[in-house]
């Protein structure tokens, strides 16, 4: 199968290693990978800040760039949700309506693609650590992703996967929410990190680098032992191409 990579802004500029890990796993399962030149931001930050009319050209360009691809895969549930779900709230040109609908059916978050499309039940990687999973809001609530990352994590050799308390509680990031409502955001991430620490996990993982950036910052600042690591990096560990 042919997979076009959709690499979000945060991944490209701050966490490129998670994208490279995703590519490694996709290559391992035999996917034919393509990087689409000229791709830019999907428009989510501006959309969430209320600039819905202003991002229409960005969305229309994204739709045209990816319209002829078989599958589009991203290491971000939130950016995937933006394209799949929230592009329908934009007043794009009528001639792109069908392309938008087609795109929404073939864009997937990474773990969702592995399990639901590629049919991957097990990976041959190994991760000799205790790991817990944070359910990112967009992945869980907009895409319905819950069991897919858990199934993949549990398939790894020597992993000790544990559930934290209230894994679906928001970490408090929410993009611009985290600095517009800094005190509330900090209280939310403090609660999340308390659950992580109580789980005894060495690593907390998720399907979004944005959540992990927020969580890891608090963990490090307050000298908690756990560290954040994107799920693609955990799944790629120990794989030999």
Mean pLDDT value: 96
> What would you say the CATH architecture of the largest domain is?
3-Layer(aba) Sandwich
What global shape is seen?
globular
CATH secondary-structure class of the largest domain: Alpha Beta
Count of domain modules = 2
Structure at a glance:
The chain is of the alpha/beta class. It has 13 helices and 8 strands.
List the helices and strands and how they pair.
Blueprint: E1 2-5, H1 9-14, H2 16-28, E2 32-35, H3 44-48, H4 56-66, E3 71-74, H5 77-84, H6 97-104, E4 107-109, H7 110-117, E5 130-133, H8 137-142, H9 147-154, E6 160-161, H10 177-180, H11 182-199, E7 203-205, H12 209-221, E8 227-228, H13 231-236
Parallel strand pairs: 1-2, 1-3, 3-4, 5-6, 5-7, 7-8
Helix pairs in contact: 7-9, 11-12
What does this entry look like structurally?
The chain has 241 residues and is of the alpha/beta class. The chain has 2 domains: 2-117, 3-Layer(aba) Sandwich (Rossmann fold); 130-236, 3-Layer(aba) Sandwich (Rossmann fold), CATH 3.40.50. It is 47% helix and 11% strand. It contains 13 helices and 8 strands. It has helices at residues 9-14, 16-28, 44-48, 56-66, 77-84, 97-104, 110-117, 137-142, 147-154, 177-180, 182-199, 209-221, 231-236; strands at 2-5, 32-35, 71-74, 107-109, 130-133, 160-161, 203-205, 227-228. Strands 2-1-3-4 form a 4-stranded parallel β-sheet, with helices on both faces. Strand 7, helix 12 (209-221) and strand 8 (227-228) form a beta-alpha-beta unit. The chain is globular. The two termini are 18 Å apart. The model has no long low-confidence stretch (mean pLDDT 96).
